[in-house]
Amino acid sequence: MADPESYRPRTGDIPTDPGVYRFIDEDDRVIYVGKAKSLRNRLLNYFQDPVLLHARTRQMVFTAVRVEWVVVASEIEALTLEYSWIKEFTPRFNVMYRDDKSYPYLAITMGEKFPRVMVTRNAHRRGNRYYGPYTKVWAVRESLDQLLRVFPIRSCTAGVFRNAERAGRPCLLGYIDKCSAPCTGRVSEEEHRDIAKRMVRFLDGSGEELIREKKKEMARAAAEQDYERAAKLRDDVLALETVAERNTVVFDSDVDADVFGLDFDELEASVQVFYIRGGRIRGQRGWVTTIEDEDAPGLVNQLLLQVYGHFSLTPGQRTTQRARSVDDVDHTAATSMPREIWVPTMPTDGDALLTWLRELRGGKVTIRQPQRGPKAALMETVHTNAKQALHRHKLARAGDLTERSQALEELREGLGLERAPLRIEGYDISHTQGTNQVGSMVVFEDGLAKKADYRHFIVRGPDGDGARDDTAAMDEVLRRRLKRLHETFDAADASDDELSGPVEPGARPRFAYRPDLIVVDGGLPQVNAAQRVVDELGADVTVIGLAKRLEEIWLPGEQFPIILSRSSPALRLLQHLRDESHRFAISFHRKKRSKAMTRSALDEIPGLGPAKQTALLKYFKSVARIKKASVEDLQEVPGIGPAIASIINTHFSGNSEEKLAR
């Protein structure tokens, strides 16, 4: 039995989105399927102290060897996908199947004299209309309760119906207008069947047409001042909109499609495909692969060629290839050619590819790029899964000790270093057209991000108005950082962040650690500027630059860059470092720019210095509230007297009057 801690995902890797998860044992069998409104909250419950778990849950987590998940757009989608996977895999730890019960459906018995709507788990009968399935009975009952407000057909059993016929009085549902009471002759057989048919049409379609009609009737009733009828129609519209919320996981029963999601960067691409057969998701597959310099249409073109190329093989070859495809969730779905293929962007060789696919299938095939509606919503869901799969792949690779060791050794050999660079620092500059210039420093130790050592810098420039360009800004940031190598161990940080806590006597502050390698974002000009600072300060640190366009590595003074293989662990490590420094710089720049915009509104007020501005913002929380404050309210702030309060109030009142006049 496996220890759950051996395969527990890191908390930050688990998304907070709704989704469906699967626990899988050492034989690659799905042993449990569940859904969650928040995957992170639900999955973390399984990895708490085993003593606190239910006995069956404890047995399940110790039997599994890994957990996987798929993100969906809503909890409704999670319910349906959970059902599909439970039906497909029959997991041994899912309680749902222990009593051999089927899932509940909403059924309309159109074969009866007076059609009845009901919730049923029984086998389907000819002549009845079924809608679902639902994984929770409360979901179908809530839908039924909403439908009966608008389509009051009978929902009682045959016995209750006969008793009402004999007594000549309807049941409770008839009195509260959730049944048209055909049992007492309130409506005729034809009228009642017509109500049932309208319910069927609503459930078969999107419901938009009926909702529009109800809204028009509501508007007319309101115009005629028939407010009671308008209120009833309003409630009907709300009920219909609740039931008509389209589930992007379930389509019409004749929909057969493969839905592709794609996310990629300069080095790798992540692909997810959902297999829709008979209007429902029957399987899902995903993989991450190394790519060359390719755009999205080219990637889609290659993807379709590889995915459907096996259909051109002989039957024996297909069987062999299918046996190797361990990622398939449903071999039947994954190895059948669909009528429709939904892609995030159209492939480069669309016409030729389409002709080829039609020949392979021996019938009609269409390639589509859904733009709106439920299909586009499902496309977005599949893309989200591809994006998160790529993110998880990068994190897993970064946590691989062998991969990290290989990356550091490649850097040592490629840069001619005496030893592997155990501490690498990455730098980037961010600004808005030269204003609010900031710099970032991120630190990787032993190939892993060490976020406690990340630092921000506010670029001041020689006159306090910022640097003249990015090269000068990088010069200032590196100069402030590297000067700390020559100062005493109790020197303060060079950045504009405060230390996370007091430095203990004899402890070495983070800025006193010498980096083995400095990586700047940019090409030869940025690298040469950084090297000048290193030479002037005698820091004895290797400096390189990573240019984003072709992912080439630049060394100071060299005419040509170093080109690493696209699959090189060293290049992946440098790319991760560069992207992290860029993200860190951008986030700090946005924060600083937001503060500057807030301050600018107060800087225009004469006599209001930084201390009083801070006091006002601390008290009122925002400039918008300061604008609305009266003179008396402003005087409640410490340091704000009657005179300055009057000036502030007059300033903002005068600006408002000017805007109104314009």
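^ that was protein a. below is b, sequence first then the tokens
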Amino acid sequence: MDRPPLDPRELLDAFSRVQQNAGCAGVDSVTVDVFAESAPAACTRLADQLESTEYRAFPLRRILVEKKPGSKESRTLLVPTVRDRVVQTAVARRLSKSFEEEFLESSFAYRPHRGVDRAIARIRMLRDQGYWHVVDADIHSFFDNVDFVQLEAQLAARGEPAWLLALVGEWIRCPAWDGTRLRARDKGLPQGSPLSPLLANLYLMPLDAALAARDWKLVRYADDFVVLARSEAEAREAMDLVGGELGKLRLELNALKTQITSFDLGLHFLGVFFQKEEIWTPWRDGPREQGRVLGMARPMPPEQLERFRHARIPTTMESALSDAGVRYIPAQTPITKGTQTDVAYLYLTEQGSILRKSGDRFLLEHEDKIVLDIPYHKLEQVLVFGHVQITSQAMVEMMEKGVDISFFSWGGRFHGSIASRKGANIRDRLLQYQIWHDTARVREAAHAIVANKIANARGVIEWLAARRNQMKELAPVRDALVELEKSATADTAASLDTVRGYEGAAARAYFGGWATLNRSDFLWSGRTMHPPKDEINALLSLAYTLLTQELAGLLEADGLETSLGFLHEFDGGRPSLALDLLEAFRNPIADRFVLNLLERGAFGRSDFGRGEGEAVLLTGPALRQFMAHYEHWMQSPRRTGAAEGAPFRELVRREARRFVLFVRGQAGLQLYRFAEEANGDEPESREPEGCDISSVTT
């Protein structure tokens, strides 16, 4: 990852702004005055931490204040530490220079040489031009409901550098400290962050642009705005458009506070009252009073804060395993900033064990002994292999907390899953159904998926051939894939069956190269799936299954119907949509993972056994070892030349978000293209540590 180009002088200038704004200390108890005592040295340390990617944002301090003096309503501030405010201010200054060129005239908040006076003057001018009818709008809890995925997509679409996207992703997702515990956040901009005002303006730019294209006039001050029209009918039409645009941003109007009015009836906006040709500004008669502080979280105890001072924070799962007395040594390479590394995947493999609920924890029992005691609030998925029982109380708790449970045979064959009621956004599913009913769009999507898969297969073959100095041996495979990619890309009018034919031919050509690539002791007779009939096929099938379930969980979390795909036909409970997205990752992630295991001799013939029929399966200890290798592969940063790339898990999450945006019609179908990655793009090839865990791997 490229490094943040923030030098100590720039950070010191940013601290001057933080000092002017004053404000309280964050969770570390360091006030602005205390920071000022050693500001030059502190800014130099911050610059070094940013350069080495050792910087980590501290949690946000929760403060409850009155909305207005004497009001019964309150709002929650989430305040970063002074050090984090310094870095955020420096980044906000950097961003504002480019953002300012794109923000529209209708936006007045948090911008240089603009403000309340300019907004009021704009309304007065429009009123005098005949825009007499007004949509007086209020967004329901705007700052609390900003969608992380949407915001990051907007930043990425602007071409912002990777270091900036990683920092912003970490800041907006910072947990909140309420005085007793950390609380995870899955949406919202923290009010109290110097960067939030700028990001708020960026997030609402699609609304600004939609209204600018019509003959209505928007005047927006952050999330407070009015739309002026020449007639009541136009005002009602404008309100409908506003509701639709906010829906695309996963926001909604506050029905109780949104109304259509006119200057005859009067308008309150930004503390000013408009009626007919008159304007009253009562707040100018004296200083505006601030609401009092109702409550403030105490600072974090030093022992709890200490874990955030290190370059790598132990995950919740690692801490729980340590508490349970289970030996677990994480990989030495730290996870890239901005990734969600504290979300756990539990693999339950100890045959005959029982998972129970006890208070706010899960207990795994085996032979009347507790082998695992872990809090469940950070779990994302539980994967159960073979004869492992889960009590109904534990299942209900998982469903309520949004934790999916997937069931597999002892050898890794997927049986089914239990999922909570996620993704209540019916709009996304309706859009997905519309695409599925549109033959042309389905064919277009299938074309894109297959062409991308063939390109990735070619990219992997070329990468492996160059790495092993086998360009001559693999040239026929590469050339065949090149021709198939050309045909699949050019034949845009082909039927779905023809498109699937291209995909099948490419797979045969690609796997034909495996006979040349295979240097292991295992024989390779070609791809067999149901069941896998040799050791290599057993490893491939298991890797595909785990990756498919991960993708299905991400898509379901966003409310999509995973059984309804575009390339893969509907087939009962098969996760066809996840299989569509899997095609972008089969060769670059799953196949290279298996080749990595084979190259290192990670498994021998004694690690495999026979299942039903002719199925070849990993044995119990080897299966646990496979899970450890898989998690290491998915979580470790990738080497991209001399730099670090985001871990595969973060890459998969990013692509799933882009896929959701495609379904919403907010982006084209863009899939991960391995050819665009630098050579050497894989995690380090060393043994993952902590593989002696007897019952779980995280």
